[in-house]
Amino acid sequence: MSTEKLTIAKAITAGLADELRADDKTMLLGEDIGSLGGVYRVTEGLKAEFGAQRVVDSPLAESGIIGTSIGLAMRGYRPVAEIQFDGFVFPGFNQITTQLAKMRARTAGTRQVPVTIRIPYGGGIGSVEHHSESPEALFAHTAGLRILTPSSAHDAYWLTRKGIQSQDPVIIFEPKRRYWLKGEVDRENPGAADNPFIAQVVRRGTDATVVAWGPLVPVALAAAETAAAEGRQLEVIDLRSLSPIDFDALETSLRKTGRMVVAHEAPTFGGLGGEISARLTERAFLALEAPILRVGGFHLPYPPSRVEEQYLPDLDKILDAVDRLFTY
Amino acid sequence: MVSDAQTVPQPLPPEAVQLMTPQGAPPSALNEASERFLPYLQRLNTEAAQNIYRTMVTTRRVDQEATALQRQGQLVLWVPSSGQEGAQAGALAALAPQDWIFPTYREHAMALGRGVTPRELLLLFRGAAHSGWNAQDYRVHPYTLVLAAQALHATGYAWGVGLDQCDWTSQQRAENGEVVLACFGDGASSEGDIHESMVFAASYDAPVVFFCQNNHWAISVPFEVQSRVPIARRAAGYGFDGVTVDGNDPLATYAVTAWAAEQARSGTGPVLVEAHTYRMGAHTTADDPTKYRGRDEEQSWSALDPITRMRSYLTAQDLGDDAFFSAVDEEAEDLAAQTRQAVVSMTAETIPALDDVFAHAYAEPHPLVEAERAWHHTWEAGFAETEGENR
Ligand SMILES: Cc1ncc(C[n+]2csc(CCOP(=O)(O)OP(=O)(O)O)c2C)c(N)n1
Question: B8 with B25, same domain?
């Protein structure tokens, strides 16, 4: 097994490069992704290697980026669009939800639109308004899309590749505050990432299950570490795919532990935690020792970054919810 | 009360290309702007000219039938194209078979002219399919109901064409190059997607012809609310050519579109054509134009009916005799009968099951969709059983 240690950002770069190499119909487009290499340098070096026709500095127009990607995909290309920041995807929301997601169903399966959209998302980087949001539920609600979010370098590499290879439109939410997190990447063997739509048990435990994704997986792991010191064994699940959601894996864990916390950065209200809670209650009601609890953001516009620590779910909020699970 | 000022037909912008008088007199350049397009008419042989007429007449007849079918509750909605056939049939005649059309929801003459059957066309309006035809079969993209969205798909597609043909010689391009016609209306011209399409098309020299049918009304909102200048003038701001044409003059629309397609095909990038026309009837069968516009306006536009103009032209040029015209009328009647037959025979068996929607939402297996599909099957089967028991 040959592995290399890469940051999540560089693992994504490697994934993009390997897909560009594997299929000359693959092309990247987005704002500032060429010579600059993207504001997070995720596409750094790719224009030099693959040329300006395949790594395209697009005009500043999100609807244009998504809408032309749809047309390119219909022509046989495999466009990978970068949206610069989470809060700037909305000019392209119409094209994603009314066109990209529906094109296959609209044409009774005769038009494929294998477009991939990469969106750096989430807070914790001390930035300004519209640079820290978690809009995943807004997209997960729309049928026709697939949504991935990696939390490790190995997954970042493989989810990027698998997302691009999918015949369906895929949105990859990249946890931007983890771009610099390093990990071992095996570029030959995907391992569990061979099926990116399957959740991963990233820590085994028996007392309660903590479900997290993207930027919160390391937080959930840290919470489990602390809980273990206090004598409680938490099972941590990294969802990885937000659409579809691997409910089987969640149910298996819940039946083992009887207790579950779902943590996400997005506002709790209307978030995916509600969907997970409701569905697992339907599937495993009698296995529940307590209601499934959610830990998420407030029903607020993402706050100024000076107070984002108070907004973001952290280790303490997760542990507090775990404690509450044992009071029922 | 609608004021007098609003009831006068909008004059053509002074730069609008016109090759035929309202009476269909022999082609001549009626103003300076028109002169450079006159030579393109030489490519229009008798058959093609007759075809423009045939497409217009048959489309209008299918349109009437569809309106009646909607009134009888056979269609959920109909979007009439009456008055706009000249713009559509003229532009269609200027395209090569390999060219693509990305329509809105009113390009019936283009769709039927490309061979889409009335049945395929009406499945959408019957509520039986989102697109009744396979886009690849006719090189006609599905109708798009979100205004302007398809202009970006057209531009992306054309961008791909440009990439595919980047090392073609100019001769190869002229013979086999593909052009994409992106259709939209005057109302849709206000949507950001039109602007973004033009920016992208210009940036990447995409071989796209933007084809705006300015029919003067976006449901009840007149053109003046969308733009202070003719839409075609906007092209200059994006760095490409724009031409306004009398869209009720099929010859002029043909000639201008032929020129535009030739430009785009050569690889120099997009072109914008604004066909100045008029929506004769309601916006859709759900609309009531008497609430916002005057009868006088509608009547004065009847004098510019593209079908009448084309017929006078064909007659004056000895390109069509009575036998030809009655043959076309007969064909239109046949097609109308086929349309009615096709719609009323759209029984449960010809309408796709919800199961098909389950089948097409995703290309690859999706556990949620599979679980819901299985649930739906069981649910439906439950009804079948109780029906059986009741019998
Ligand atoms: C994004 C969007 N907004 C609103 C509508 C509702 N709508 C349908 S047609 C129409 C007017 C369109 O006018 P125009 O572009 O001039 O085309 P026309 O129907 O006159 O051919 C409106 C507002 C829509 N379909 N899509």
Answer: yes
> How many domains does one find in chain A?
2
Pair A10, A151 in one domain: yes
Alpha carbons B208 and A144: distance in angstroms, whole number? 28
B390 at interface of A, judged by CB pairs closer than 8 A:
no
State whether A230 and A152 are in the same domain: no
Instruction: Evaluate the CA torsion angle A23, A25, A30, A35 in order and state its sign.
Output: positive
Q: Per the CB < 8 Å rule, is B160 touching A167?
A: no
Chain B CB within 8 Å of residue A143 CB: yes
**For chain A, counts of helices (H) and of strands (E):** 12, 14
Q: Which domain holds residue B365?
A: 356-390
Q: pLDDT tens string for chain A (328 positions)?
A: 689 999 999 999 999 999 999 999 999 999 999 999 999 999 999 999 999 999 999 999 999 999 999 999 999 999 999 999 999 999 999 999 999 999 999 999 999 999 999 999 999 999 999 999 999 999 999 999 999 999 999 999 999 999 999 999 999 999 999 999 999 999 999 999 999 999 999 999 999 999 999 999 999 999 999 999 999 999 999 999 999 999 999 999 999 999 999 999 999 999 999 999 999 999 999 999 999 999 999 999 999 999 999 999 999 999 999 999 999 9
Task: Spell out which residues line ligand 1, taking CB within 6 angstroms.
Answer: B 106, 145-147, 185-188, 215, 217-219, 279, 283
Orientation angle between helical segments B85-93 and B306-316, nearest 10 degrees:
50
Q: Do residue B157 and residue A71 have CB atoms under 8 angstroms apart?
A: yes
Inter-chain residue contact A71 with B199, CB threshold 8 Å: no
Q: Are B375 and B303 in a shared domain?
A: no
Number of structural domains (chain B) is 2
- ipTM of the prediction: 0.91
> Does A241 lie in the same domain as A221?
yes
Write out the residue range of the structural domain in which residue A272 sits: 200-325
Contact (Cβ atoms closer than 8 angstroms) between residue A241 and residue A159: no
User: From atom 19 of ligand 1, which residue's Cα is the shortest distance away?
Assistant: B218
CATH number of the domain within which B125 lies: 3.40.50.970
Interchain proximity A143–B166, CB inside 8 Å: no
Say how far apart CA A122 and CA A173 lie, in whole Å.
9
Instruction: Give the DSSP letter of residue A300.
Output: S
| A187 in the same domain as A60 | yes
User: To which residue do tokens 């069509």 refer?
Assistant: B320
A141 touches chain B (CB under 8 A): no
Query: Which of A156, A175, A193 represents a domain boundary (last residue)?
Result: A193
| E-assigned strand segments in A200-319 | 200-203, 208-212, 234-238, 241-243, 260-267, 293-297
Q: Which residue has the tokens 């889409």?
A: B116
Instruction: Compute the nearest-CA separation of B306 from chain A (Å).
Output: 33
> In CATH, what number is assigned to the domain containing residue A42?
3.40.50.970
Between helix B85-93 and helix B46-71 the angle, nearest 10°, is 140
Q: How far is A250 from chain B (nearest CA, A)?
A: 14
Residue B197 near residue B153, CB atoms below 8 Å: no
Q: Which of B247, B222, B258 has the alpha carbon at shortest distance from B85?
A: B247
Question: d(Cα A272, Cα A137) in Å, to the nearest integer?
Answer: 6
Claim to verify: residue A149 and residue A16 sit in the same structural domain: yes
* Same domain as A38, residue A93: yes
A263 & A154 share domain: no
The reported pLDDT for the residue numbered B383 is 86
Residues A108 and A157 in one domain: yes
